C-alpha cells in the first residue's frame, strides 16, 4: 500500500502579501504626487482630516507598527511628525517607510504572523490581522484622498494602477 503526501501551498505567501501591500503603497504614492501642495495640509471635506494628516497616520501605523511586530518594542501611537511641512517631506517620509516595510516584513516568521501583538500598547491582535489592518487603513484613507482630489477638480490615479 502506498501513501500520497500532499503539500499544500498557501493561498498567498508572505512574499506575495508584501508585493501586494507595496503595490498599494505605490498607488498611494501616486495619489500623494497628484495632490496639490497648497491643499495637502489644509483642505478637507465634511470634517475629515487634511490629506497630509492621513498620510502621517498611514506612515506611523504601517512602518512603526511593523517594526513593533518584529522587534517586540512597543511604543505609544504618535503621528504628529512636525518635521513634515512640505509635500517633498511627506514623499521622503513615505519612501523611507516603504523601505522599512521591505526590511522588517521578511523578518516575520510563519509562527510570528499568528502571535498576538499589543500594537502601540492599544490593539492586541495576531500580527497578520494587524498587517491586514495596515493595508485596509491605507486603502480607506486613499479613498478619502480620491474624494478630495475630485472635489478639487483633479482626476485621481486609476485605482488599479498599483505598479
Give your account of this protein's structure.
With 163 residues, the chain is mainly α. The chain has a single domain, classed as Up-down Bundle (Four Helix Bundle (Hemerythrin (Met), subunit A)). It is 55% helix and 5% strand. The chain is globular. The N and C termini lie far apart (50 Å). The model has no long low-confidence stretch (mean pLDDT 95). Keywords: Metal-binding. It comes from Niabella yanshanensis. Belongs to the DinB family. This is DinB family protein.
Beta-strand content estimate: under 5%
Helices and strands, in N-to-C order? Answer: HHHHEEH
Helix content: 40-55%
The Rg value, from CA coordinates, equals 18 Å
Oligomer: single chain
- What is the CATH domain class? Mainly Alpha
**Second rung of CATH, namely the architecture:** Up-down Bundle
* Shape estimate: globular
Looking across the biggest beta sheet, what order are the strands in?
A: 1-2
Distance between the termini: 50 Å
Number of helices: 5
Query: Uncertain segments of ≥5 residues (pLDDT<50)?
Result: none
What CATH calls the topology is: Four Helix Bundle (Hemerythrin (Met), subunit A)
Query: What's the average pLDDT?
Result: 95
Number of E-type strands: 2
How many discrete domains? 1
How many strands, which pairing sense, and closed or not: the largest β-sheet?
A: 2 strands, antiparallel
Structural class: mainly alpha
Amino acid at each position: 500500500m502506498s501513501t500520497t503526501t500532499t503539500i499544500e501551498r498557501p493561498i498567498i505567501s508572505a512574499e506575495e502579501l508584501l508585493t501586494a501591500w507595496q503595490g498599494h503603497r505605490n498607488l498611494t504614492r501616486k495619489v500623494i504626487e497628484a495632490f496639490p501642495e497648497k491643499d495637502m495640509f489644509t483642505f478637507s471635506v465634511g470634517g475629515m482630516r487634511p490629506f497630509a494628516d492621513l498620510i502621517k497616520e498611514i506612515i506611523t501605523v504601517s512602518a512603526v507598527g511593523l517594526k513593533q511586530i518584529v522587534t517586540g518594542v512597543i511604543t505609544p501611537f504618535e503621528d504628529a511628525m512636525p518635521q513634515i511641512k512640505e509635500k517633498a517631506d511627506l514623499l521622503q517620509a513615505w519612501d523611507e517607510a516603504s523601505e522599512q516595510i521591505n526590511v522588517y516584513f521578511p523578518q516575520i516568521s510563519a509562527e510570528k504572523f499568528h502571535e498576538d501583538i499589543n500594537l502601540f500598547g492599544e490593539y492586541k491582535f495576531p500580527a497578520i490581522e494587524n498587517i491586514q489592518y495596515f493595508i485596509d487603513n491605507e486603502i480607506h484613507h486613499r479613498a478619502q484622498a480620491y474624494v478630495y482630489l475630485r472635489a478639487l477638480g483633479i482626476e485621481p490615479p486609476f485605482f488599479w494602477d498599483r505598479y
